[in-house]
Amino acid sequence: MVNGLQIHNRKPLVRTRFAALVAATVTAFSAGASEAATSAEDALLLRNFDAAAEQLAVRAEAGETDALYQLAGLYRRGLGVPKDPDKAAEIYRRLAAEGDARAAAALAGREQEHWWVDDAHAPLEPALHWAAQRGLVAIIDDLLSSGVEVDQQRTFGRTALIEAAQNDQAGAVRALLGAGANPNIADDAGDTALILAVRQGASSAIDALLAGRADINRRGYAGNSALIVSVQKGDAQTASTLIAAGADVNATNAAGQSALGIANAREYAQIAQQLQALGASSAGFEPRERSSLSGLRLNAGEINGRSIWFIAAERGLADALSTLLGAGAFPDQRDGSRMTALMITAERDSTAAVEVLLQHGSNPALEDSDGRTALDLAVTAGSTASVTMLLRWQKSGERRDGRLLQQAAQSGSAPTLSVLLRAGHIDTPDGESGVTATMLAAQQKDPALAELLLDAGSDANAIDQNGRNAAWYAADAGSARNIAVLHRFGADLERPDNNGDTPLHRATLRGYTTVVKALAAAGALGDEPNKLGLSPIMVAAVNGRPDIVDILLAAGHDIERKNDQGNTALLICAQRGDVLGLKHLLDKGADLRAVNVHRMNARDVAEELGHVTVVDVIDEF
Q1: Using CB atoms within 10 A as the burial measure, which of 71, 179, 240, 613 is most buried?
Q2: What is the pLDDT of residue 400?
Q3: Coil, strand or helix: which one is 70?
Q4: Do 1-124 and 423-526 fold alike per CATH?
Q5: Whose CA is closest to 499, among 531, 537, 465?
Q6: What integer pLDDT is reported at residue 395 of this predicted model?
Q7: From the CB of residue 4, how many other CB atoms can be counted at a distance below 10 Å?
Q8: pLDDT band of 261, cuts 50, 70, 90
Q9: Does 27 have pLDDT greater than 60?
Q10: If phi over 0 gives left and psi between -120 and 50 gives alpha, with beta otherwise, what is residue 544?
Q11: In this predicted model, what pLDDT tens digit does every residue of 175-211 receive, in sequence order?
Q12: What is the pTM of this model?
């Protein structure tokens, strides 16, 4: 980067509707440049802006859009050409309409978000998709009014609506739907915006899509509907939302499995009860007769490279395993991953097979190539029935520390966690990281996990090696419900980590408005800066979260608070060239006269760093 200009080496592109605009630009320069002339890149490095502008104009005339983008930057700053922000904005607008996300970023005053792009390895994302991911409704409206196709698909068949939905940008979802976006276009995997929003737990986007008449029963990858996906995730809140909106509770996926069948199999009691009350079918998991390998010889060989023994374990064929054991099979033989039949059946929750193997002397303490026992695998898979059975065979002296609780918390299985707690397992921290099961549970959507651990006596204020407690983990994951649970159990919701970041800092950085509101409800909106000198309102402003800025101001945060360099949130936005954040702060009364330790105000800072658009906004205010 030279003077804020991006230097890329793109191949010339086919000429587009920029022709007239470029032609007008080129007439200001000589008709061509000699082969010996300095290249634009070299000229920029040497700060010879006249030569750079001439070279870039010629290349732009030849159809090289990257050169046109660089030329717009020169017009914006008045380097080598007369300063003309209007012409720069026109070029950016037209480039953005052709799909150049850098140009959209320039219009939004957020060029810094594309400093890392190396076009030799990764193409730039379309501008509409870039804006949709970030919820920049004004840019979306501008692009669409310029004629950008609202349903254009990028890599993997993703539309801008899909990008907005996955990132829970409800405003962008509504803007795109209002412009005629088709909510039922699927990506290359077959998933629509609604299904992908459900996969991400993007509740605001889900509401916006349902209001926009997205097909609630459209099937996606593996034939899964949005409701089935929510049940697979154990997301009771989203499942309730979809059911209330008219989702088909009897729909089945490609494997013939219904939502109730999945809820029953995974022991999601809350979801199962709701579906049962509606008379839903439990298709796909009805008890069925298992095929048997009875009568097969012990050395019957292999089928498709797998021995009969391991095929029986994978299918949970208890009678077949019993037959083979009766014929002299060794119960603890291992496959290529050093997995035993007990490990395989426990992970798949084939309880009858687990019982047969244990009764025939299979050793539950053996480990696979990754150091996992059958109990580890069962806990990680959320195989509650197998966990219960294996715990009965656990020796009284075996450890009952927090390791299995951590695995259960990560798996998101409340029933498994409950079984372990009843068996006497204690939430002790990991020896290296200091992480506890409660911290991992706080990251999950289901607050029942953290509640179970805290009810059992887990420490709500334990900290890991980075000084982070469970509230920090909940804020980082966007779990407002877990913030409420932790508050009820006396967790310190304002504890800073080793970097000085509180849960509020983290939620603000991540843009989790619901978590900020939950912290506000608990009275945990302290405005102390972190070790980088950033207060929460500064973090909100520079990350484009005006909604959070408003919440913090309503809670009494000081818009003029300064860090150790004397910078306010307004000055930091000016430093970063963040037009949107700066405009919002000005609208909320931020003082343009405030100066930092170098006696520079926001305009001084923006002008020195070449943020012309910021200077223009300040001058017009």
Answers
A1: 71
A2: 60
A3: helix
A4: yes
A5: 531
A6: 57
A7: 17
A8: confident
A9: no
A10: left
A11: 999 999 999 999 888 999 999 999 888 999 999 999 9
A12: 0.54
Q: How far apart are CA 281 and CA 258, in angstroms?
A: 7
Q: Which of 69, 71, 90, 89 is nearest to 81 (CA)?
A: 71
538-546 average pLDDT score: 85
**What tokens appear for 509 in the block?**
């950085």
| Average pLDDT rounded to a whole number, residues 120-131 | 59
Which of 213, 208, 206 lies closest to 242 in space, CA to CA?
206
Comparing CA positions, the residue from 221, 284, 204 lying closest to residue 251 is 284
- Name which of 486, 481, 453 is nearest 471 in CA terms: 486
Q: How many CB atoms lie within 10 A of CB 394?
A: 16
Which CATH fold topology does 1-124 show? 1.25.40
Residue 438 dihedral angles phi and psi, to the nearest 5°: -65, -40
Sign of the alpha-carbon dihedral angle for 335, 341, 345, 347? negative
3.65.10.10, 2.60.40.10, 1.25.40.20, 1.10.10.10: CATH of 289-398: 1.25.40.20
**CA neighbours within 13 Å on the CB side: how many for 600?**
16
Q: How far is C-alpha 96 from the chain's CA centre?
A: 25
Phi and psi angles of residue 598, each rounded to the nearest 5 degrees, phi first:
-95, 10
CA gap 475, 190 in Å, rounded: 32
> Which DSSP string corresponds to 285-326?
----PPP--TT--TT--EETTEEHHHHHHHTT-HHHHHHHHH
CA torsion, points 8, 13, 19, 22, in degrees to nearest 10? 20
User: Residue 74 in contact with residue 85, Cβ under 8 Å?
Assistant: no
Residue 68: pLDDT above 50? yes
Q: Are 33 and 58 in contact (CB under 8 A)?
A: yes
Query: Domain residue spans in the chain?
Result: 1-124, 289-398, 423-526, 528-621
CATH of region 423-526: 1.25.40.20
Query: Which CATH code for domain 528-621?
Result: 1.25.40.20
